[in-house]
């Protein structure tokens, strides 16, 4: 979704803010009990659903995941340096789990990204989300790499009104998806 579409989608949405810092990053890393308590409270305060993911039949240790990613300077750095396999090696997943890097990245972004912003980077105020979390490795958004390019001009007036309706429906779906993350 382009930045323009993102702004259209969020123009009707109430701006959400980060809750206050619940504990220092050092305390979270040192004490798993503090980590789990603050992570649950954080999701409650954010109004987001929190369930511990299961990978290979075992609950994912979110504390270990948070420690390993922040040890490598955070989510965006791990993504840009393609270090998810390195992070995943700490968990000793079965060799049958071929998508471990992808799954860790997905769960981290959904459950720990905003928590990291507050507790590791000490952000306050409105939520910060990268424009396209997958854009670092997924370059399909670049026009020169796109398989299909669309004309910036509508073919006719009827087509234009139909396209606006589709954009509105697309934004509603995308906003719903973003709220779930």
Automatic annotation (TrEMBL):
GO terms for molecular function: DNA binding. Signal peptide: none annotated. Pfam families: ARID. InterPro entries: ARID_dom, ARID_dom_sf, ARID_HMGB9-like. Residues 29-120 form the ARID domain. PANTHER family: AT-RICH INTERACTIVE DOMAIN-CONTAINING PROTEIN 2, HIGH MOBILITY GROUP B PROTEIN 9. This is Putative transcription factor & chromatin remodeling ARID family. It comes from Lupinus albus.
